[in-house]
């Protein structure tokens, strides 16, 4: 049987990983600045994480959601304490798409409405409502087509005000990424987010912050929108939450009535998922990873800004987009093949993404910066 062809693959077979490093079947070591697409938050196979999950599996790995699970409450409390959202409630599920699907559904339940404002370049996942709110017709099947989604340019206050005038009374939600990831690392401006939040309040729509990629400390705050004082009604998270274990969640404002039975999913909040997420939070706290993401990330961005051929450096903390004066595919290939460094692409062909583990140090960062600069210098010389 053939495997379904999901993604273009790196021609590498990782068999072992530790911290920011991955080894292939031939023992070659790679520096991982991609983190399995922003998933690896506390580093590969962190010893505390491995122990927590292994011990839990010895005791009990799974029972259905029909029993009491104090681990879920423990996770909700820890997440509340570290994120500052202790008055919100937590719905646990398994992926970023599922979290957004449920957030959109809750917004529709709550308002009784069905229109949603989303943004150009947005990626929210591949399930029906999430993919409909994703700005990529290539991944929308006919069954996902709907005229309920209005796509607006990010950070365009006039376009937002006009859309609110036209559709405000039918609007269930506005969904926006804390930092737009797949689209090429674009920040919603603080003034824009504030206006969006106020607009939602005015027309009775809910503000959904998709923190699937930008959350869990990556931006240098627990959630990227916390660089502003905006408080969304719903916050979705996944990726870094489980450091590789599939676990996701929706934080729900106390103002939203989420009735029993509205949401559900078999694997959501299972014992292993809860301990994986708890272990991530414990390591984030013990190792001060949000602070590290801020400090190391700012330093990396400053250095990148002075490199030849770099047009723009965007992002916050360790969610970094480097826009080059040329397509980045060849440069990423060289980084991988000549220097053993994984980096990420984006839907903008000139923008390369860095999404390393949050405990990456100055030493690993320097290895990358030197390699990157030398490739860029060579490319510049070749172009003369
Ligand atoms: N939202 C954002 C911002 C994402 O970057 C992604 C994944 N790239 C998703 C949602 C979907 O997450 P998942 O693949 O876990 O469904």
TrEMBL record:
The protein in question is named Aminotransferase class III-fold pyridoxal phosphate-dependent enzyme
**Which family does the record claim for this protein?**
Belongs to the class-III pyridoxal-phosphate-dependent aminotransferase family.
Q: Does the keyword Acyltransferase apply?
A: no
Which keywords does the record carry?
Answer: Aminotransferase, Pyridoxal phosphate, Transferase
Look up the coiled coil feature and give its residue ranges.
Answer: none
Gene3D superfamilies noted in UniProt: Aspartate Aminotransferase, domain 1, Type I PLP-dependent aspartate aminotransferase-like (Major domain)
Pfam families attached to this UniProt entry: Aminotran_3 (PF00202)
For the keyword Transferase, the answer is yes
Task: Say which domain of life the source belongs to.
Answer: Bacteria
Cofactor(s) this protein requires: pyridoxal 5'-phosphate
Write out the GO MF terms: identical protein binding; pyridoxal phosphate binding; transaminase activity
Q: Which InterPro entries match?
A: Aminotrans_3, Aminotrans_3_PPA_site, Class-III_PLP-dep_AT, PyrdxlP-dep_Trfase, PyrdxlP-dep_Trfase_major, PyrdxlP-dep_Trfase_small
């Amino acid at each position: 049987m053939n495997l379904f062809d999901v993604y273009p693959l790196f021609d590498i077979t990782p068999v072992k990983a530790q911290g920011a490093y991955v080894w292939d079947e031939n023992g070659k070591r790679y520096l991982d600045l991609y983190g399995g697409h922003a998933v690896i938050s506390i580093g590969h196979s962190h010893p505390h994480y491995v122990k927590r999950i292994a011990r839990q599996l010895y005791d009990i790995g799974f029972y259905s959601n029909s029993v009491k699970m104090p681990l879920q409450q423990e996770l909700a409390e820890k997440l509340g304490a570290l994120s500052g959202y202790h008055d919100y409630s937590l719905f646990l599920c398994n992926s970023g798409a599922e979290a957004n699907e449920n957030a959109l559904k809750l917004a529709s339940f709550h308002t009784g409405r069905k229109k949603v404002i989303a943004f150009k370049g947005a990626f929210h996942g591949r399930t029906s409502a999430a993919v409909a709110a994703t700005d990529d017709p290539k991944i929308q099947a006919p069954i996902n087509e709907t005229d309920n989604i209005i796509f607006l340019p990010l950070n365009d206050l006039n376009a937002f005000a006009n859309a609110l005038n036209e559709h405000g009374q039918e609007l269930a939600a506005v969904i926006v990424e804390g930092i737009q990831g797949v689209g090429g690392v674009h920040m919603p401006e603080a003034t824009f987010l504030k206006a969006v939040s106020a607009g939602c309040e005015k027309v009775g729509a809910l503000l959904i912050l998709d923190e699937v990629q930008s959350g869990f400390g990556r931006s240098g705050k627990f959630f990227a929108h916390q660089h502003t004082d905006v408080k969304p009604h719903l916050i979705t998270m996944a990726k870094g939450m489980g450091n590789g274990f599939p676990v996701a969640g929706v934080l729900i404002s106390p103002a939203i009535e989420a009735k029993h039975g509205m949401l559900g999913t078999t694997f959501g909040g299972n014992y292993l998922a809860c301990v994986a997420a708890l272990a991530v939070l414990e390591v984030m706290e013990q190792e001060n990873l949000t602070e590290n993401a801020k400090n190391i990330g700012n330093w990396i961005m400053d250095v990148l800004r002075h490199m030849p051929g770099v047009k723009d450096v965007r992002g916050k903390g360790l969610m970094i987009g480097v826009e080059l004066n040329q397509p980045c595919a060849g440069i990423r290939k060289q980084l991988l093949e000549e220097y053993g460094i994984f980096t990420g692409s984006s839907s903008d062909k000139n923008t390369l993404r860095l999404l390393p583990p949050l405990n990456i140090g100055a030493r690993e960062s320097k290895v990358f910066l030197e390699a990157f600069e030398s490739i860029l210098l060579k490319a510049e010389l070749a172009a003369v």
